[in-house]
């Protein structure tokens, strides 16, 4: 002990000596400056160091990416180069426009409304002219990846459904409860396909990009909740460009790892090396868009489990093929919620689900994660605004049971379960509902009471509710409130006239909210959406049924295997990897594939050109 104290004393004495020498040196260096000069120099150095740190610690771009970006920005900004770039862009824009939108002599683009409305017959005549001028022969089987459904019977069905639901808007669930129910059923059926459990949930979106954006925004917010200030996503270079968009939109750093040079799928070992304390999500594709190859999702799931990192499976392309492949006679390695590490899946109903364009689903293994998908602003003068997707003003959403609840609060309140009308005149705490029951409470102070089928009156202080099991919650707030977490196939409809925080819904549910106070809440990125697309998606899934999807999957996969087999016989081209699903990528070391694709294009074929490698 004495020896340790002696050593500590010597260290302390030496430290004091060095500090004294440093003090003398600094004072000597500053001796020739006046006080105001020292202050300015110190402030300038501090500002410079801060700016340098912020530049180096960019939330989205690495140092190399920033250097490259700034270098090219500088070059493009030079007057001599800027003029040439501008001229070339204008020339190419005109050329692309002429190729994409060919016009005949006397034809012209419309750039203003007609002075008078034109007849339906004239409109259809013009539409027919547009179709003749620009439509590719996608019905003839020469278009790759663009159109997935389109049979005459299905088109007739969807047209009739669209006609019947053209003016529906889920913003108004009390007016259009059937649309909300259909959306919930689409989500529930999708969860079943991917082996979701009783605690799973999801929402419909406008497409795969929005599904991916929502998942990445969710994991960014989960990371923030854990104290990770600079979250990072790790994905393969072949992952969909929507992950780049999510990085750009949400300030998340996207770390791209190479594909295995032999399999052209995600290199899991490279992904493991990139994992850090900032990693918020690992991404796998089922399959990848460029090559149509299935990543080793089982291995990625194990990484997620080991490091406690969420794993997102992007099944936007193959999402409505891969769940049916086993029954179709083409089993795949595990890819869905059966894997412990997989926490979310995106799948497009408007691809191999054959629904009309404009629908997709984002699915979560647990409802707690789905909570983070929602956005809330608690001090907006316009009041609560709740939407489950990306489009417009407000969007009202699906319930599993298609029920509505109307609640009125004239205080700082929140209320109730299913089919409950509530009036609050104070700061109240209201109800926990469980298992399809209604709870109505009467508060004349800071009280809490429960029962079934009761209306609530509150004259006190409030907190707000957790409902559990097949219930809907609708709230109107005129005060400072916190509102709701619903669990298991529920809806939340909220009207706020005060400073409110609102709502988390889970498991195939949506949130409908009206605010006349200081609250803004959204579970996804959209406002109003056409109920006709929801109805069209639901009708399509009903039309096919499980057996229909299994049959189409069997035909598609068998054709894919046949095409792959025949392509491998052609000299001077090769097939990328082992395409197990519906996309086959080919390349060549002998000739320019872009010239080959251009020649095929002149013969009416519309194929997707790739790069890196071509």
UniProtKB/TrEMBL annotation:
Q: Name one Pfam family in it.
A: Pyridoxal_deC
Q: Where in the cell is it found?
A: Endoplasmic reticulum membrane
Q: Which UniProt keywords apply?
A: Endoplasmic reticulum, Lipid metabolism, Lyase, Membrane, Pyridoxal phosphate, Sphingolipid metabolism, Transmembrane, Transmembrane helix
Which GO terms are recorded in the biological process aspect for this UniProt protein? carboxylic acid metabolic process; sphingolipid catabolic process
Q: Name one GO molecular function term.
A: sphinganine-1-phosphate aldolase activity
InterPro entries, alphabetized = GrpII_AminoAcid_Decarb, PyrdxlP-dep_de-COase, PyrdxlP-dep_Trfase, PyrdxlP-dep_Trfase_major, PyrdxlP-dep_Trfase_small
The annotated pathway is: Lipid metabolism; sphingolipid metabolism; Sphingolipid metabolism
Quick one: a GO cellular component term? Answer: endoplasmic reticulum membrane
Q: What class of enzyme is it?
A: lyase
Swiss-Prot/TrEMBL cofactor(s): pyridoxal 5'-phosphate
The record, for Gene3D superfamilies, names: Aspartate Aminotransferase, domain 1, Type I PLP-dependent aspartate aminotransferase-like (Major domain)
In the bilayer, the protein is annotated as: Single-pass membrane protein
Q: List every position bearing N6-(pyridoxal phosphate)lysine.
A: 351
Q: What is its EC number?
A: 4.1.2.27
Family recorded in the similarity comment? Belongs to the group II decarboxylase family. Sphingosine-1-phosphate lyase subfamily.
What's the protein called, per UniProt? sphinganine-1-phosphate aldolase
Top-level taxonomy: Eukaryota, Metazoa, Echinodermata, Eleutherozoa, Echinozoa
């Amino acid at each position: 002990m004495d020896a340790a104290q002696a050593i500590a004393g010597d260290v302390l004495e030496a430290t004091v000596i060095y500090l004294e020498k440093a003090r003398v040196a600094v004072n000597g260096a500053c001796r020739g400056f006046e006080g105001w000069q020292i202050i300015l120099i110190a402030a300038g150095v501090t500002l410079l160091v801060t700016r340098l740190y912020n530049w180096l610690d960019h939330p989205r771009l690495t140092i190399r990416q920033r250097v490259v970006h700034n270098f090219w920005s500088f070059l493009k900004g030079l007057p001599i180069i800027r003029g040439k770039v501008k001229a070339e862009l204008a020339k190419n824009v005109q050329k692309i426009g002429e190729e994409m939108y060919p016009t005949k002599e006397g034809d012209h683009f419309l750039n203003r409304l007609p002075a008078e409305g034109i007849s339906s017959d004239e409109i259809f005549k013009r539409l027919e002219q547009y179709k003749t001028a620009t439509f590719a022969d996608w019905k003839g089987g020469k278009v790759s990846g663009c159109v997935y459904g389109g049979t005459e019977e299905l088109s007739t069905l969807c047209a009739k459904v669209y006609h019947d639901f053209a003016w529906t808007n889920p913003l108004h669930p009390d007016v259009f409860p059937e649309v909300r129910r259909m959306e919930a059923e689409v989500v529930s059926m999708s969860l079943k396909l991917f082996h979701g459990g009783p605690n799973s949930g999801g929402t419909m979106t406008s497409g795969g990009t929005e599904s991916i954006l929502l998942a990445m925004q969710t994991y960014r917010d989960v990371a923030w909740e854990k104290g990770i200030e600079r979250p990072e996503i790790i994905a393969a270079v072949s992952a969909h460009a929507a992950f780049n968009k999510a990085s750009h939109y949400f300030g998340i750093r996207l770390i791209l790892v190479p594909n295995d040079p032999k399999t052209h799928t995600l290199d899991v070992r490279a992904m493991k090396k990139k994992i850090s304390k900032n990693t918020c999500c690992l991404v796998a594709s089922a399959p990848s868009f460029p090559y149509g190859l299935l990543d080793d999702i089982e291995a990625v799931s194990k990484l997620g489990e080991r490091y406690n990192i969420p794993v997102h499976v992007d099944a936007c392309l193959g999402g409505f093929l891969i769940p049916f492949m086993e029954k179709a006679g083409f089993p795949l390695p595990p890819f869905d919620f059966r894997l412990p590490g997989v926490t979310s899946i995106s799948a497009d109903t408007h691809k191999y689900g054959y629904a009309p364009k404009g629908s997709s689903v984002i699915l979560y293994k647990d409802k707690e994660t789905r909570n983070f998908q929602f956005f809330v602003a608690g001090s907006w003068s316009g009041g609560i605004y709740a939407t489950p997707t990306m489009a417009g003003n407000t969007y009202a959403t699906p319930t599993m049971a298609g029920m509505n609840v109307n609640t009125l609060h004239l205080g700082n309140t929140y209320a109730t379960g299913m089919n409950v009308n509530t009036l609050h005149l104070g700061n109240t705490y209201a109800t926990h509902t469980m298992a399809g029951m209604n709870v109505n409470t009467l508060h004349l102070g800071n009280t809490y009471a429960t029962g079934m089928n009761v209306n609530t009156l509150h004259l006190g202080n409030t907190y707000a509710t957790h409902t559990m099991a097949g219930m809907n919650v609708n709230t109107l707030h005129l005060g400072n409130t916190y509102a709701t977490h619903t669990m298991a196939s529920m809806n939340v409809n909220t009207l706020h006239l005060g400073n409110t925080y609102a709502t988390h819904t889970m498991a195939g549910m949506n949130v409908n909210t009206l605010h006349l106070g200081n609250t803004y809440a959204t579970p996804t990125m959209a406002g109003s959406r056409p109920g006709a697309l929801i109805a069209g998606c639901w009708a399509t899934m009903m039309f096919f049924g499980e057996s229909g999807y299994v049959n189409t999957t069997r035909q598609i996969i068998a054709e894919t295997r046949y095409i792959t087999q025949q392509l491998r016989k052609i000299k001077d081209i090769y097939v990328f990897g082992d395409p197990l699903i519906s996309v086959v990528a080919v390349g060549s070391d002998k000739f320019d594939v872009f010239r080959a694709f251009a020649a095929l294009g002149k013969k009416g074929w519309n194929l997707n050109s790739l790069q890196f490698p071509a």
